[in-house]
Design brief:
- By secondary structure, the protein is an alpha+beta fold.
- The chain has a domain of 74 residues: Integrase, N-terminal zinc-binding domain (Arc Repressor Mutant, subunit A, Orthogonal Bundle), CATH 1.10.10.200.
- The protein is built from nine helices and ten strands.
- It has a four-stranded antiparallel β-sheet with strand order 3-1-2-9. The protein has a four-stranded antiparallel β-sheet with strand order 5-6-4-7, with helices on both faces. Strands 8-10 form a two-stranded parallel sheet.
- It is globular and about 50 Å long.
Length: 248
């Protein structure tokens, strides 16, 4: 899974320096709003809301924005009917793509997604066509430049319930069952670790190696998709060459 680990890391780095911060905030606010509407505004009882608020903190989203999103969920019983829709697709070189969206207009969203895919030489797939090659996992990233004992952190992660750990490019990736991500995070933070990000993602069970040309095409497509207002995240089973990730 080294390719996917590198991809997670590079996306985190890009997100932290993203000039389109307003759009990032808007997407996180939608996720907070939907999580609060579905599971209630009490973060103690709502794991999805806790994770969404964690994303907001990682993106340095103002607390007022977070609270407004929660309040909006309680105030809007009608009018705005946001729903989570997942699209399965194929990109250049036949790599698998899972495109997770939050939308109030399915027709608009599928049209935008299809257009982006077609222009890049990809296409939408049928339901179930690529989802089988992914599994839901919790992933925590820890910047190892802030610690002097990476091996100790790995052992602490395993002791806290992690399924797997991997060090790549100065980042410790900790993989957990989706239901264990918060307990593992708590165990690591209790030991003094600083968590750079914590997220439940769709992780490929097997990756597909791509060359530099196809890798660049796939990254451009993912950037285009993630720039769409309704797209929250894109998962892929592509394993990118290091040279392509350095450019990203």
């Amino acid at each position: 899974m080294s390719g996917h680990s590198k991809w997670s890391t590079i996306k985190r780095a890009k997100g932290a320096a993203d000039a389109k911060r307003g759009k990032v905030f808007t997407k996180i606010a939608r996720e907070i709003m939907v999580s609060a509407r579905v599971g209630g505004p009490n973060i103690v009882d709502n794991a999805a809301l806790r994770l969404a608020i964690g994303k907001a903190r990682q993106a340095n989203m103002p607390k007022d924005n977070v609270q407004r999103a929660i309040d909006r969920a309680s105030a809007t019983s009608g009018g705005e009917n946001w729903e989570e829709v997942r699209y399965e697709a194929y990109g250049p070189a036949g790599v698998a793509l899972l495109i997770d969206t939050l939308t109030d207009n399915r027709n608009r969203t599928v049209s935008d997604v299809r257009s982006a895919l077609t222009k890049a030489g990809g296409n939408l797939g049928e339901t179930g066509s690529v989802a089988w090659t992914f599994e839901q996992k919790g992933v925590l990233l820890i910047d190892l430049t802030e610690t002097t004992d990476a091996e100790d952190l790995e052992l602490q992660a395993i002791d806290a319930g992690a399924e797997d750990v991997d060090v790549d490019s100065g980042v410790l990736e900790v993989v957990t069952a989706p239901t264990d991500i918060e307990s593992v995070r708590g165990g690591l933070e209790g030991s003094g670790a600083t968590i750079a990000s914590a997220e439940v993602i769709m992780r490929p069970t097997n990756t597909v190696g791509v060359d530099e040309t196809k890798g660049r095409q796939i990254l451009r497509l993912i950037d285009t998709l993630e720039d769409l207002d309704d797209v929250q995240r894109v998962s892929t089973n592509a394993d990118f060459p290091d040279s392509v990730l350095v450019e990203a």
